[in-house]
Amino acid sequence: MVRSLWTGATGMLAQQTSLDNIANNLANVNTTGYKAQSMEFKSLLYQNIQTKTTSANGDTKPGSAQVGLGVRNASINTVFTQGALLASELDTSFAINGKGFFAVRGADGNTYYTRNGNFQWTTAANGGNMLATSDGNPVLDSRGNAIILGPQYTMSNVTIDKDGTVCYPDDKNNPTSLGITVGLWQFNNPNGLYREGESLYSQTAASGVPINEATSNNVEKSKVIQGYLEGSNVQIADEMVNMITTQRAYELNSKVITTSDTMLDEANNLRR
């Protein structure tokens, strides 16, 4: 019965972490570019409660006698499905339709990746205009450089086509390429990316090296859609169902502990 106490405790701890994950998904239901996360569980060690492998008459048993010792969280996976495209009134809003990621340079000088295309033009160190995130981190082009335009350009006239090419109207008001392409990157295993917070991800050994869509012909190209933002892919109905299931599982595990305690109390009160 002591074993059941610890088994029930592991179940309660696992379900508490599951609820934490559900709460985080619901909290980010309106976060631009947020990707929902799902919980995976795995069983703990099994204990042999009968060591003999044969029955009383010497026949081999068809099955073993083992009891599980509980559960724990195996991993929290990110679901990289496409989020809804939401119209924006800002011409510096960009959504990705596909598997690509924008690249930004953090304050520490490292490169991070995001699906949040809520950008803006800000003043660069040389006096030009730099495309940056809401935190001021520069957005990188396909060569890994910050996207900076000279002060002679009117930012409201700058457009970016579906291939990520930065364009400016010529004398005939036709969009003309400025020779700069917004960088789009893919990963062989995006679920292996490390979640940094603020909708940013960083490369890991599990994710593999970033694949530059501009120089690789072996990946399906993503499209950049100006005037739109990618919404969260969190499904509220699914999360509410998961919350109810988690709550019930938590209650059942707590019932295991109280039942085991009652049985121990009965054993302690036995009279000869």
Give a verbal description of the structure:
- It is built from 2 helices and 20 strands.
- The chain has 2 domains: 2-49 and 64-80 and 235-268, no CATH class; 85-230, no CATH class.
- A hairpin with a 2-residue loop joins strand 16 (194-197) and strand 17.
- The longest helix has 33 residues, at 236-268.
- Helix 1 runs antiparallel to helix 2.
- The chain is elongated, with a radius of gyration of 27 Å.
- It has a 6-stranded antiparallel β-sheet, with no helix packed on it. A 3-stranded antiparallel β-sheet has the order 9-10-11, with no helix packed on it.
- The protein has helices spanning 2-27, 236-268, and strands at 37-43, 46-48, 66-68, 71-78, 85-87, 94-97, 101-105, 111-114, 119-123, 129-133, 148-149, 159-160, 165-169, 175-181, 184-186, 194-197, 200-202, 211-212, 223-226, 228-230.
Sheet-strand content, in percent, reads: 25-35%
SSE ordering:
HEEEEEEEEEEEEEEEEEEEEH
Low-confidence stretches: none
Shape: elongated
- Class based on secondary structure composition and strand pairing: alpha+beta
Largest beta sheet: strand ordering:
16-17-8-7-15-18
The largest sheet is:
6 strands, antiparallel
- Amino- and carboxy-terminal Cα gap: 21 Å
Q: Note the quaternary state here.
A: single chain
**Rg result:** 27 Å
> Total strand count, please?
20
Summarize the structure.
The protein has 272 residues and is α+β, with helices and mostly antiparallel strands. Strands 16-17-8-7-15-18 form a 6-stranded antiparallel beta sheet, with no helix packed on it. The chain has a 3-stranded antiparallel beta sheet with strand order 9-10-11, with no helix packed on it. Strands 12-13-14 form a 3-stranded antiparallel beta sheet, with no helix packed on it. The protein has helices spanning 2-27, 236-268, and strands at 37-43, 46-48, 66-68, 71-78, 85-87, 94-97, 101-105, 111-114, 119-123, 129-133, 148-149, 159-160, 165-169, 175-181, 184-186, 194-197, 200-202, 211-212, 223-226, 228-230.
